[in-house]
Amino acid sequence: MIKLATMSSACPDWTLDEVVAGMKRHGYQGFEPRVEWDHACGIEAALAAQERRDIRRRMEDEGLEICCIATGARMAVPDAAERAGHVEDLKKYIDLAADLGCGLVRVFGGQRGGGREWTAVVDYVVEGFAQVLPAAAERGVTLLLETHDDWCCSAPVRAVVERAGHPNLQVLWDFMHTQRVLEEPAESFQMLGAHTRHIHAHDGMIVDGRLQVSDVLGAGVFDHAEPLRLLAEAGFDGYCSVEVIHKRGRGDRADAVLGQYAEGLRGIVAGF
Rounded to the nearest 5 degrees, what angle is found at the Cα of 161, between the Cα atoms of 203 and 31? Predict the structure, then answer.
């Protein structure tokens, strides 16, 4: 059964107490903090050990869970020293996730080096993941490479996961990004379905040749129903996480967005 989650980017001004109240109000089960963006929920790598225990206990007592830590780490950045920094960041986020009872950490590919063939880029990214996957396995955390930025197409994402050949590296499928590069949901599912452990949901449209993201599910052109159906039929039981992005100080639509997405996603899943 597909479960509902929200990222903190949908409600960046909400404290953790407000997040818990909003999740319960709209029937969400999972929370995905977007670290590094100074969201009011306060979940960051700098949390002390007692703070981590308190947050984990609070969520568990409410029947909720932190389902994924969304990082900005980028494993394809061409500069080796910069990539090494992302590797060290990921080790901190793996520990944060494990301490919070969370089994997933989101990772970007990021922009790849210009002029390099995909085979070389994939090998480089696999090499980067190899530096952090032992730590992930030790803490029981799975890293997720997201279909995003230069990695919206499914084939390179699958190639990284398969060449790495490690159970603690899987896929976060963002439906919007695979479709904006003209993949049909069935094509993406064929490539990624077996590796998908988490989903991001957000809608949008192409305006004057550019992507314009909407905070209303159904207002855009991206199909959520077909990929959700394909995953449900394959037995996917992870989270579909709302990734509407509001900036701090401009999140006054958070409650309306979470309510509308919850109703829309539940309506889709109920039709299967």
Answer: 45
